[in-house]
């Protein structure tokens, strides 16, 4: 049996401008914050030092001062007295590129 692509697939949402993805990410971030609040993990924004055990972390999105969506990491902590809090830090995602052995010297000169 041979499978052949008919070309009839139509995606559910096709948005040429790409705004739909940003809206979904922002909506997901808001929902995650609401769930975190229900579970007792309020975002910590003060400059005061707190000590706690790191119990979880995951990627997230936040809005910066210019209302742009920025990648971030949520860190979840529990203090000695049982209080919970989370800290959100923005980060710039990156990826690694593998190169062939014969091109390694050229790449080292570039960097």
Structure explained in plain terms:
This protein is of the alpha+beta class. It has a domain of 72 residues. The chain is 24% helix and 27% strand. The protein has a 4-stranded mixed β-sheet with strand order 1-4-3-2, covered by helices on one side. The longest helix is centred in the N-terminal third of the chain and has 20 residues. The radius of gyration is 21 Å and the shape is extended.
Layout: helices, strands, pairs:
Elements: H1 19-38, E1 42-43, E2 53-63, E3 69-78, E4 84-90, H2 104-110
Parallel strand pairs: 1-4
Antiparallel strand pairs: 2-3, 3-4
GO molecular function: 4 iron, 4 sulfur cluster binding; DNA binding; DNA-directed DNA polymerase activity; single-stranded DNA 3'-5' DNA exonuclease activity; zinc ion binding
Catalytic activity: DNA(n) + a 2'-deoxyribonucleoside 5'-triphosphate = DNA(n+1) + diphosphate
Region (Disordered): 1-21
Concise description?
This protein has 111 residues and is of the alpha+beta class.
Number of strands: 4
Shape: extended
Q: Which structural class do you get from the secondary structure elements?
A: alpha+beta
Give the SSE string: HEEEEH
β-sheet strand percentage: 25-35%
Subcellular location: Nucleus
Family: Belongs to the DNA polymerase type-B family.
EC number: 2.7.7.7
Function: DNA polymerase II participates in chromosomal DNA replication.
Name the features.
single chain, 111 residues, alpha+beta, 4-stranded mixed sheet, 4 strands, 24% helix, extended, DNA-directed DNA polymerase activity, nucleus, DNA-binding, iron, 4Fe-4S
